[in-house]
Amino acid sequence: MLVPSVLAKPLDFAPLALIEHFARRIFDRVLKVHPDLFERLGDYRSKRFCFSPSDLPLHFVVIPEGRVVEVSRGIRQPTADAVISGPLFILLALLEGRCDGDALFFSRDLMVTGDIEAMLALRNALDDSVIDLAADLGGMTGPLAPLVISTARYIRSRALRGKAL
Amino acid sequence: MELICPAGTPAAFKEAVDAGADAVYCGFRDETNARNFPGLNFSREELGQSIVYAKARNVQTFVALNTFMRAGCESLWHKAADDAVRLGASALILADFGLMAYVAETYPQQRLHVSVQASASNREAIRFLVDAFGARRVVLPRILTVQDIARLTRQIDCEVEVFAFGGLCVMAEGRCSLSSYATGKSPNMNGVCSPASHVKYRQEGAEMTSELGDYTINRYGPGEAAGYPTLCKGRFSVGEESGYAFEDPVSLDVMDHLDALRDAGVSALKIEGRQRGKAYVAEVVATLKKSLTADASGRAALISRLRLMSEGQRTTSGAFEKRWR
Amino acid sequence: MSTPRKPSLSLGPIYYLWDGAKWRDFYFRIADEAPVAHVVLGETVCSKRQNFTEPHIADVVDRLEAAGKRVTLSSLAMVTLERESQHVRSLVFDSSHPIEANDLAALGLLRGTPHSIGPLVNVYNAATARVLAARGAENICLPPELPMRSICTLAAEMPDFSFEIFAFGRMPLAISARCAHARSKGLTKDNCQFICREEPDGLPLRTLDSQSFLVLNGVQTMSHSCVALVEELTEIASAGISRIRLSPQDCDMVAVVQIYDAVLSGRLDSGEALTRLAAIYPSTPFSNGFYHQEKGAAWVARARNATLGA
């Protein structure tokens, strides 16, 4: 299941700095709400995790320890210790713990490469967090706000219909 | 029959309780339990809080200490048992005779369950565990048919718990060193089967290859449902043929046999999956809880929804039916 | 520490299904020619196979005992059927020979009777070994998975107890209710036609990339590689281990026993011993990874080989 093109389109034109700003905001929010995420991540907190939505021309590299978020555009995946790729709504639903990563792997909706142990630690750490993107980002403003919020709602509706499972 | 549900994190624990578990089983974040995966399991504090949450809702907590104590490092397991008892665990799930002896002597009042990892598959074995350690319940290995189970329950003075849904061990549990043969990490000693540290996935065009250590485990065609990179569900060549030598990527579902298991005298049904996400736990626990009271046709409809979340997106009743052998 | 006694050699049970005559002749030759002190025998893997060897057991035991070997009877590794339970009961209650327990059923029934524990029972620590010793176990063959550090700890904590190490042969790695061996030939366990007889040394299983990996032996899965703890024998002996187990493969086991005997007696260095073993059991790689706390399939060569082998 892909991000509807009406949602993907603006990302082709949005400045990377802006996307990066929102990505970091999501990430900071996650850490603030759930600081023990770090504890669960253990030694893997210094790894470079790459999230590559298969339906967007973007890659997000996150290093939890340094609170680093890097966004890049293009087909080539940036260097990372572990990479997870799949449709954006699935990646975000996974971030929210609304679907089961193993099930998505079995159905081939998700692909994981690189350091599987690190990715598993991150998945488990996130799964223990209670993240609610729509609520967290509800007060957001700016040119990307409608996109982010509608994506969050979209995830919610899909996840609740069980499609992501 | 009680429904015994898995939790790998406090969040999953809460979901399991809220979804109707009679008991939740979990483990500490180290090699004292057989799901010693990165980022999974409970600190002492988390277990304490979870037990309080469960008790307030009349739900039991079983703590799995179901690996085998490493010689010379027994204190790690002893401490885990001490802490689980102190925090109010309803039962300890044990596999190692040495640890069973420790718990039976130190905490004679503590309920002791025999883990599936102990491989107690017959009446003499179970009588031994009851006599020697005061075992109150035994989790049966996934090598018995429903008929075997019915015969067994009549011969023993001990509650019986069986796996009903989730991952399927093809080999007798606790008696498999396939994973450590390939990786050096052992289910019995390190609590990991096919450890993530030794797993690699390679995407080659539309094909995906999984490897464990230096060994190729499987190659999936485009869109083909995948499974865990466990050796017993890998594709291999034997003679001129290639295929699933032991078992397909598939998981266990014996809900079709629910009435037979109840008639057989089974006390509890166990759901595998401490490594799964909380979404899975919530969905599976709620569905199985409903199916315990549903009629046969209602039950089938409920369970079919879970199949897509299963390994290889398929399920089997495994050794519970004789023809599986 | 006092000077360790030289460990004695023991021959483990044949895990494979061999024809009755081949099985009998194998043990006759062991009786006549092999310098082993202990022989453990009897069907261990699959209860369906028992008819093949039963007609010969009495002759084999007589011949081995006449040659001065101590004979122990092996119990089944997996007991689920009523018939199998009955078999273990009669083995324990009717046999005049000591039993090696390979499953919890035998373990339970043997309480108070002197017996051995086989490598298929999980003994990972001294606490467990003490529980078993208190119930009558006099010898424990430790699981092949145990690393040297665990072996040494166990031996040090129970210095007067007899521990045995699995030092030669394909390792038993897993056992299942399902028969992968029959399945690979389009059969099921219940209608297997004893097809595993076709592979007296196991049916090789390779990965999709043609890597040798495991062998199928009925319901049992074994390593493709053959454990060869030879360079480690000195260390094992000084740890106080009492017995060295050699597990029969379809090769010249008398020669294998002679090589281990020569190494233990100091008549043969380990490098030469390994070369000879490789000639006796060719085309199967050796492994010793578990002992060295690595993956079981690994081969860890000692640095001192270079000089010893020269």
TrEMBL record, chain A:
Pfam families: SCP2
Organism superkingdom: Bacteria
SUPFAM superfamilies in the record: SCP-like (SSF55718)
Residue ranges constituting the SCP2 domain according to the UniProt record: 28-127
Name recorded for this polypeptide: Putative lipid carrier protein YhbT
Organism the protein comes from: Rhizobium giardinii
From TrEMBL, chain B:
Cofactors demanded by this protein: [4Fe-4S] cluster
MF GO annotations: 4 iron, 4 sulfur cluster binding; metal ion binding; peptidase activity
GO biological process, one term: proteolysis
Binding-site list for [4Fe-4S] cluster: C169, C176, C193, C232
The organism's place on the tree of life at top rank: Bacteria
Pathway the protein contributes to: Cofactor biosynthesis; ubiquinone biosynthesis
Its biological purpose: Required for O(2)-independent ubiquinone (coenzyme Q) biosynthesis. Together with UbiV, is essential for the C6-hydroxylation reaction in the oxygen-independent ubiquinone biosynthesis pathway.
Subunit structure: Forms a heterodimer with UbiV.
Similarity comment: Belongs to the peptidase U32 family. UbiU subfamily.
Name of the protein: Ubiquinone biosynthesis protein UbiU
Species of the source: Rhizobium giardinii
Gene behind the chain: ubiU
Automatic annotation (TrEMBL), chain C:
Iron-sulfur among keywords: yes
Positions annotated to bind [4Fe-4S] cluster: C46, C179, C192, C196
Function: Required for O(2)-independent ubiquinone (coenzyme Q) biosynthesis. Together with UbiU, is essential for the C6-hydroxylation reaction in the oxygen-independent ubiquinone biosynthesis pathway.
Species the sequence originates in: Rhizobium giardinii
GO biological process: proteolysis; ubiquinone biosynthetic process
Identification of the protein by name: Ubiquinone biosynthesis protein UbiV
Pathway where it operates: Cofactor biosynthesis; ubiquinone biosynthesis
GO molecular-function term, one example from the UniProt record: 4 iron, 4 sulfur cluster binding
